[in-house]
Design brief:
Chain lengths: 255, 258
């Protein structure tokens, strides 16, 4: 087993090295003008320069902060609202169809509306992120509550549990897998919308920085920004999958 | 009896949206709304009728849908092909897995500036971004689907000494067709989202550009009309794809979570 994964790692690294070499060959041969397409070493140099004393570090922090605030806001509101709607069969019947109707609406289509109300401001970006990331969590919580084993509701009635206790002790744990999966999706959406919001509203951050870099043809800085954005996405989803595995350990027995 | 029940659920589902629209209209009439950000439902309906009749909405919808469809077809096609290869050949999977995992989390919108620089504005740049956005999810879904193909079928193909093409066409593709369609369905909804996002951010064409322009021209009724229309297009698309899936793969769609 150990040997197998070593082989996988070695082969994976080999391809990665080949990939970067191929990238270098393409740019060295000037198949694409270096103004548009920097080689790996120039990207790396821009990355190092930007992160050590350059503006890139501050912009990364800015974007990550924006993404996290929006995501946390969306998660809190989504799970809370979802719990309130999901626990009552009547509320579900009245509200869930409207939510399903709104779900396919692209979150970015709300950006102009948010701009109309809040102008080009940090609040606008935050609202857009929160709105976009809200849907997966809200719907996952509602569906998770609706899919709870009906016997458990009967048990809770027999035990005389209050509504709050039902939510906290039975419904939330049983909806947990769906909620956790949606948290990961929500984080991805948050990152995308943070970048789009920064580009449109010119708020400080990586989105604005890569757009500015492309407009002044600083392609190395542009690629450095893209590399960092990829790293943010990778770290975010890795951390959340780790949390997911830890929190769902109790489920492994049933599966 | 059944009709009565249906009416019952319908009534309850429709109460909230209809109530909200009526309340908005009453509020707008009562306050004699004059605003750069809000519009009454009646004004929005009028604006929608106006852009529907002058053809600008149809043109924008066509632009967006064309880009989304092209990007979706290219991305899902290419991605599924790579995914099938990775699923069939362990060595390919071992070789490419790390690189794919590193490239996958790059948000597609980060590619907007690059493609803008390389290709300029227009349908081409939008299609490239959508294609890349659809590529990774399709790779992952197709690979998982191939790995779940009944191993006996693969043994049969080995015993019959089928060539690669024959194995692909006769064994693998039929076995993973339902999953491929599901991957296409997910991608279609996502492609529309990416298309609108690219248009709002950069590309001067399509529905996203239309809604952005309506906002910048301070025509809130038109902006909300566009929003409504974009929502309706997304909703119709998902309805259509779900119906197709139920028709083509009745056994498959049932157990899948929505």
């Amino acid at each position: 087993m150990n040997r197998l994964s070593f082989r996988k790692l070695a082969l994976g690294v080999l391809t990665l090295v080949l990939f970067i070499l191929g990238w270098k060959l393409v740019t060295d041969a000037r198949l694409i003008s270096p103004i548009f397409f920097p080689g790996p070493e120039r990207t790396y140099a821009a990355l190092v320069k930007g992160l050590s004393g350059g503006p890139l570090l501050a912009q990364t922090v800015e974007t990550v902060e924006r993404m996290l605030y929006g995501w946390l806001l969306a998660s809190a509101v989504g799970v809370l609202l979802g719990a309130l709607i999901g626990i009552s069969r009547r509320a579900r019947a009245f509200i869930a169809p409207t939510l399903e109707l709104l779900r396919p609406l692209p979150a970015s289509a709300m950006i102009p509306v948010a701009i109309a109300f809040l102008g080009f401001s940090d609040q606008m970006v935050l609202v857009v992120i929160a709105f976009g990331a809200l849907w997966p969590m809200l719907l996952a919580t509602i569906h998770g509550f609706a899919a709870m084993e009906p016997r458990l509701y009967e048990v809770s009635a027999v035990l005389g549990l209050s509504r709050f206790q039902v939510i906290w002790k039975l419904a939330l744990p049983s909806a947990m897998p769906m909620i956790l999966a949606s948290l990961r999706l929500g984080l991805t959406i948050s990152l995308v919308l943070a970048v789009v919001g920064e580009m449109l509203a010119s708020r400080a951050g990586l989105g604005q920085s890569i757009l500015a870099a492309s407009r002044s043809f600083r392609s190395a800085d542009l690629f450095a920004g893209i590399v960092i954005l990829g790293a943010i996405g990778l770290c975010g989803s890795r951390l959340l999958s780790m949390a997911e595995r830890r929190l769902l350990r109790w489920q492994a027995v049933h599966r | 009896m059944r009709v009565a029940r249906f009416m019952h659920t319908c009534w309850r589902a429709a109460l909230l949206p209809v109530g909200l629209i009526l309340a908005a209209q009453v509020a707008a009439t009562a306050t004699q709304l004059e605003s750069d950000t809000l519009a009454s439902p009646a004004d929005i309906a009028r604006a929608l009728a106006a852009i529907l009749t002058d053809g600008s909405l149809a043109r924008a919808t066509l632009d967006t849908l064309k880009a989304a469809a092209a990007g979706c077809a290219l991305g899902v096609g290419l991605g599924s092909f790579i995914g099938i290869l990775l699923g069939l050949f362990r060595i390919a999977d071992d070789l490419l897995d790390l690189t794919i995992e590193l490239l996958r989390p790059v948000p597609v919108v980060a590619l907007i500036p690059v493609t803008m620089m390389l290709l300029g504005f227009g349908a081409q740049m939008e299609i490239v971004i959508i294609t890349i956005g659809m590529l990774w999810p399709s790779v992952v879904l197709a690979r998982a689907a191939v790995k779940e193909v009944e191993p006996r079928l693969m043994e049969v193909s080995r015993v019959m000494q089928l060539g690669f093409a024959a194995r692909l066409v006769k064994i693998v593709l039929p076995a993973i067709l339902p999953q491929l369609f599901m991957s296409l369905k997910l991608a279609a909804g996502y492609a529309l989202v990416v298309a609108v996002t690219v248009e709002i951010t950069a590309n001067p064409q399509g529905l996203g550009y239309g809604i952005m322009m309506a906002q910048q021209a301070l025509r809130p009724a038109e902006m909300f009309a566009y929003l409504l229309w974009i929502g309706a297009v997304g909703w119709l698309l998902s309805l259509l794809l779900n119906a197709t899936q139920r028709r083509l793969f009745p056994a498959h769609g049932r157990g899948e979570p929505r």
